[in-house]
Amino acid sequence: MRLWPLSNDIKSKQFIKIFKRSDGEYESMIQRVYAGLRKLECGADITIATSKSQVSLIHNQLGCDVSVCVEPCRRDTFPAIVLATAYLHDVKGIAEDEVAVVCPVDPYVESDYFDALEKLGALAAAGGANLVLMGIEPTYPSEKYGYIIPTGREPVSGAEAFKEKPDAETAREYIKNGALWNGGVFAYKLGYVLSKAHELIDFEGYEDLYEKYGELEKISFDYAVVEKESRIQVMRFAGQWKDLGTWNTLTEAMGECFVGPAMLDETCSNVHVVNELDVPIVCMGLKDAVVSASPQGILVSDKERSGYIKPYVEKTDRKVMFAEKSWGDYKVIDVGQDSLTIKVTLKPGQKMNYHSHSRRDEVWTVIHGEGRVVIDGEARLVGVGDVVNMPAGCKHTIEALTELNVIEVQLGKDIDVRDKVKSKGGSDEEA
Amino acid sequence: MRLWPLSNDIKSKQFIKIFKRSDGEYESMIQRVYAGLRKLECGADITIATSKSQVSLIHNQLGCDVSVCVEPCRRDTFPAIVLATAYLHDVKGIAEDEVAVVCPVDPYVESDYFDALEKLGALAAAGGANLVLMGIEPTYPSEKYGYIIPTGREPVSGAEAFKEKPDAETAREYIKNGALWNGGVFAYKLGYVLSKAHELIDFEGYEDLYEKYGELEKISFDYAVVEKESRIQVMRFAGQWKDLGTWNTLTEAMGECFVGPAMLDETCSNVHVVNELDVPIVCMGLKDAVVSASPQGILVSDKERSGYIKPYVEKTDRKVMFAEKSWGDYKVIDVGQDSLTIKVTLKPGQKMNYHSHSRRDEVWTVIHGEGRVVIDGEARLVGVGDVVNMPAGCKHTIEALTELNVIEVQLGKDIDVRDKVKSKGGSDEEA
């Protein structure tokens, strides 16, 4: 929400495409991290632990063959890491003495970070400790992070204590004495976490744990495991590691001053523009400002002030105005009294689930590409200019034979994304 | 163009709805002036002289029964005033000894201005001069205006000389000596301008003049008439009279700090927002700034800098993204590779011209209201959810029985507003 209007209730900051790749395309934080991990020489096997609501987005941005461990609901980090570890062992068949390295995709990092992850894994494999933590060299006395107090200043040391979110004064003291940020990056052998899990949770294996997931206690991995473990190592990391949680920090990491159609006059200074609309943004005479536009809204803010956006976003209409799905994406282009018009883009070869709506009619007009629709069991090919009528209750799906753009008009009272009934059939295989 | 993105190639500043009426609705400059004139006790008969491209907009904003004298092409002010005067005399049958008062709709004025217009007309009727000019008390030594040097400082005097756009130094000198701005506001008896016209132009009456209009010399009324006339009076006017030609001056005249969906945090100061999009604009920590959004684009500018917008607007895509027509309005909601999707709003009882396109297909989906379409001569009623297909060449029109909203998908290569063929028929009477 703090990166509104680019983030909304279903798209969080990890998915905002804001970083320019060498080929000129833009990528998101999760795409950067995934690409960085895939380049590692050790050929790490990557699994993404995430909540249900993010799976479509992950498939959209990383491809449909990425390995995903889905949390059926939100618990805390201990249940999440146990579930992912059980998934690696029971579903992917990875042995108990193999090493897992856990890293969040939130922080902005560079290539040295991935090398450090590899070292972290090697330390865990060597078996000198049950848990190997990455300790990040602090760049300022943050009040938001947890601190690790290491036993010494050598590259790899033990951990003496863990301190949660101190005030700035205390943080400054910690840092003077060599304390490190706890970034939630650590490595362990699967067997270690599985045995800890069985001590604390009564479960058989992955399937059983998944079933019980909603009943598990909300408890952090730090609290349940890290702070109680004596066989622990801390590896110092001094490279780039930056939380891009606010517009102010996010724009610092942007390579150029704008993404999307924008013009800044020569009297603008320290201005960043991220424009996901098709219309141009013209900026003149601005200082220290961020300007961002999406189908969700438009933000114009002094960079320092941008951290205080939350109460204003809460006052806006929170209806989701754009989303990335596994099959492509959509954006709302008109909100009427009893209608909603959206532009749908399907990637070649992708298709929607076969579904129906109980309280709204829909009309598709194909504006680009070729596809195949199934309407109440009847398949037919569609191309530019073809119109498909789907009254409420009518089961429908569309599959893109080439990249496909469709204008979808939704008609009805109280149109709601949750009015969706999945159906069986409609295609050769289930989407 | 200087008020981009609210103005575009077909909508000029006079039509931007930015002034809050007492009933809470917003009105444009032309609506303000028209309402002011209609309130005059003298019951002035109002005719609007304008170019062809503005007629739809005038009908949209002032109603379809407003009297309009259309210039078939752009000449200068002398031909325009002669044409309008001939229109009043020959078409509307107004006698030669009746008075016409000419006033531009550009400046921002208040009610005392309309009273002054009435006095100007009374002076012309009294016959003490052939021409009665309004001389506006300057508020600063502008380099953009023409100056009238009056023969004295009394409320009504003679004119000694006219000076075009002096430098600021000279303007300051003029003002010290009692000079006034020439705002192009003046009154005369129709017979006077008609006789001047016949001296300079060989024409029979209005119809003949209209036919010849394109061949007339481009010459200003000031140069052709005012500066050569010795029987002239100048009436001083000291009320509000402000050119709102830039964002900086326009926002000064706004009653509130925003129009349209917007939120400004408490750290904003001297910030104005005009938002014609449906999505909210959130402003935080801005100073002396103007923010404006329309389907044409988004402007974020320091107020002083906003006067330098022209070269940036010239670099944007100039395709017209919204327009007001006599029957309602439309806005572009999606631009595809070979498609354009627009939202059309028709006012109750209004209809489009019966027309066809030679190089594009169209699909209408009715999203609100009820109407009647005529497709290649066949009439039928349409309501919410009805879809109408119009391949290239198909003649079509739609009439609104209630307020009507339609999503129109245009499909074809090089879609252009000029691809429009008007047809006969299609309705009981021609639109």
Report what the structure shows.
2 copies of one chain form a homodimer. Chain A is built from 10 helices and 30 strands. In chain A, strands 5, 7, 8, 9, 10, 11 and 12 form a 7-stranded mixed sheet that branches. In chain A, helix 3 crosses helix 6 (190-200). The first copy, chain A, has helices at 29-38, 55-62, 77-91, 111-126, 168-176, 190-200, 206-212, 221-224, 247-252, 310-315; strands spanning 19-20, 26-27, 47-51, 67-71, 99-102, 107-109, 131-136, 146-150, 156-157, 159-163, 180-189, 232-237, 241-243, 258-259, 262-264, 269-275, 281-284, 287-294, 297-302, 322-325, 328-335, 339-346, 355-356, 361-368, 371-375, 378-382, 387-390, 396-400, 404-411, 421-422. By secondary structure, chain A is α+β, with helices and mostly antiparallel strands.
Short description, anyone?
Two copies of one chain form a homodimer. The first copy, chain A, has helices at residues 29-38, 55-62, 77-91, 111-126, 168-176, 190-200, 206-212, 221-224, 247-252, 310-315, and strands at 19-20, 26-27, 47-51, 67-71, 99-102, 107-109, 131-136, 146-150, 156-157, 159-163, 180-189, 232-237, 241-243, 258-259, 262-264, 269-275, 281-284, 287-294, 297-302, 322-325, 328-335, 339-346, 355-356, 361-368, 371-375, 378-382, 387-390, 396-400, 404-411, 421-422.
